[in-house]
Structure formats: C-alpha cells, structure tokens
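Re: weekly structure request thread

Next one in the queue (102 aa):
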Amino acid sequence: MPAETLLIMAMASAGLPSPPSALQEQSEIIVTGARPLATKIDYRLRGAALVYCGARDRQQNASAVATICTILDTCVRGGARSQQALSACVEDRRARRPSPGK
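Done, posted below.
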C-alpha cells in the first residue's frame, strides 16, 4: 500500500480531515480571518490632564490601546474635555493616520 494511502487512512481513523487532493490545491483558495473588534478604553481626566488611559479588559490589542491613548492625550492637550468632543477628536485623528503598510 502506498505511503500516502496509509497517511490518509491514519488521519481518517484519528478523526482528522484528509489532505486536499492535487486538483483541490490548484482550484480552491481558502481565506480565513477575523473581524477586528472595537477597542474599548477607560480614561480619567483631572482638569486639563489625562491621568489614566488603559484597556477596558485584558483581551484588547495592546498596540491599538496605546495608539488610542496617545491620540486621546493629544486631544485633551488640545482642549477637548467632554466625551463627545474627545470621541470626535480621536475619530478625526485616527481617520487621518496612515494605514499600516502604506
């Protein structure tokens, strides 16, 4: 029995999917991915100073949180204080940032 047949039989008995055939490898493209989750942060202001900015939970992307906190600090230094003004400022600055890889 050819080694490839034994491998496929072993995979099937272990409950693993069989490898794709050569025809499938040439005619199919499989793309997997995940939708990015919204980055949620908590922040605290004391007067005109941002005294705390961090992730709302531990599963947030640390790089995204750091970027948003940096932008938030810039917005606070620019005079934004209300949640509405800060949200608008962060979204405006985020939209103007170049995308990664560009």
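The chain has a mean pLDDT of 79. The chain is about 45% helix and 15% strand.
Next request, please.
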